[in-house]
Amino acid sequence: MAFKLSSQLPLPFQKSHKGSQRWPIPHPIPSTNLAGCGCSILPSGVTSLSRRSGGRGVVHAVKEEETLPSALAEADVSKTPSSSSKVVLVIGGTGGVGQLIVASLLSRNIKSRLLLRDPSKAISLFGIQDENIIEVHKGDTRNPSDLDSTIFEGVTHVICCTGTTAFPSKRWDGDNTPERVDWEGIRNLVLALPPTIERLVLVSSVGVTKYNELPWSIMNLFGVLKFKKMGEDFVRSSGLPFTIIRAGRLTDGPYTSYDLNTLLKATAGKRRAVVISQGDELVGEVSRLVVAEACIQALDIECTKGQIYEINSIEGDGPGSDPEKWKELFKAAEAN
Length: 336
Fold this sequence. Notes:
This protein is an alpha/beta fold and about 325 residues long. It contains 8 helices and 11 strands. Helix 2 links the parallel strand 3 and strand 4.
């Protein structure tokens, strides 16, 4: 069932225009655990970068804006027709990384489609948007019957950033465990996707190849790294064009209980330099803003197809939303 958001973008406590539907004032969304919603689960306190022999290279880039693409941050994106032929399906679009991905797609006027367990969260975070810009479907990847083919009609690209906590928590209520989310949910999604998808970007975690080794085995006591790796492997063997982004321990956000303009102005602080590696030897932290931008950039950068990257961010300037600088980063990681 699709929920289409009409063309007004009210902030909290604003009245809707005459004749339009009055939507409820956005309510706060409970803060998510650092390890949830596509978040990485690096051990607490592990913040330094590591590069052991056998790992692929670590590279940096140049300059990054402090916010999501800022040219449209003050604009009413609902009034501008989409300038892109892409239709991006975002799974987990109200989570810590997902909400930033959706906000950034909106700022770029790229049409997005969201698959959410609770569609009301889309209004809380993104306001009320034109149905030609964003479309919301109610569904849960844990339930194959929810993944009706109509959800994928016209979709060209997919970003999946679902997740749950590494250890038992309230977020496990309703069978929301790593096995159900990171393995079964990913498997169900991949099986439902049409072969016409141009790119599937999956957000995963560093350390998934070492879940039997310390300190990763501690984080894997309830299987989160093992199930993320199983999800990765299913994506890799699917035949779909994919890119996997393994994030370090996530910082900045999640930006819950905010409106779209606040999301667009979210900053990565001083941690704007991007570090990309291959070989699962990278440890450290990464801004959610950097992960979100990496996912969007990977949709169109050809050299990222069929690749797996680990990503961190450190203090310094970074690539911002410049596709050429991101392309250089991805290529340099592969070269090393």
